[in-house]
Fold this sequence. Notes:
With about 325 residues, the protein is an alpha/beta fold. The chain folds into 2 domains: about 5-100 and about 295-310, Rossmann fold, CATH 3.40.50; about 105-285, Rossmann fold, CATH 3.40.50. About 30% of the residues lie in helices and about 15% in strands. The chain is built from 12 helices and 12 strands. The strands form 2 sheets. The chain has a 7-stranded parallel β-sheet with strand order 8-7-6-9-10-11-12, sandwiched between helices. Strands 2-1-3-4-5 form a 5-stranded parallel β-sheet. Helix 4 packs across helix 7 (about 160-170). The chain is elongated.
Amino acid sequence: MTKRPKIVFLDRETLSPETRLRAPDFPHELVVYDRTAPNDIATRIVDADIVITNKVPLRADVLEKAQGLKLIAVSATGTDIIDLDAARARGIAVANIRGYAKNTVPEHTFALILALRRSLVAYRNSVIEGRWQEAGQFCYFDFPIADLAGSTLGIVGSGSLGSAVGQIGKALGMNVVYSGRKDGTIKPGQVPFAQMLGTSDVITLHCPLTPETRNLIGASEFVQMSKKPILINTARGGLVDEEALERALELGQVAGAGIDVTAPEPPPSDSTVMRIASRENVIVTPHTGWASREAIQALADQLIGNIEAFWAGKPRNLVV
């Protein structure tokens, strides 16, 4: 009798409880863990044929223990948690999720942009604290409010998410510019990175975290932001130097920041992100930009589809 392949899901808790994870359409053994601590990774994948992970890292030292591992199915788009070179060397395929967040991330991005441009959090808090009654008239003007129409939206990353953000920006009457790479590489339809920094009223990041993009936005970049923009990061925490962001907020080099991702996650209680989170021009959300009900279900369905396609000999969404 042919042995049924063993599928191990290392961190099911990263998908919402209401998300339906259907069973793959071939005979298999499925072992599900809500979460996996670093010391347990190697033991849990040692006899797996397929491993599902969202945020549990799979580095070379644990991959060498999994002699029968054939596929790592990442239940996310980003693959920086996987040692891709080690997987390639061992003949382990890696598949990721694509296109599932084309609505949820752009919508979350603009929720942050609109809230910050109109000082919604600051006004809400002031109403709760009694400022409206204190003002004694129909409105008051304690915090800045600015339209998006006519302003410039600078987008770093022109993939599906960056493009969707650009479409919304254009619909709202914004001048949308896509940035070239920091190293000076410019594709058709892009402007130089430095030009984007200097001309944008809102800057939003939609690029992967790689060695080249780590700390993409740091102290020198904030100095170049002559229009004092709002900075939005719904991509990866490591793209922004968080200490430099804190200084930029203190110096008024940026008008505000919307942060959905940090490094690490969750951030320590004494971290830079937690220090700035209480500022009235900062909104920090707990990596929920991707997490609409519709998007998570689409991710789960695509995840199982990736596994089924691989086992049927028709792999898709391969990174390795």
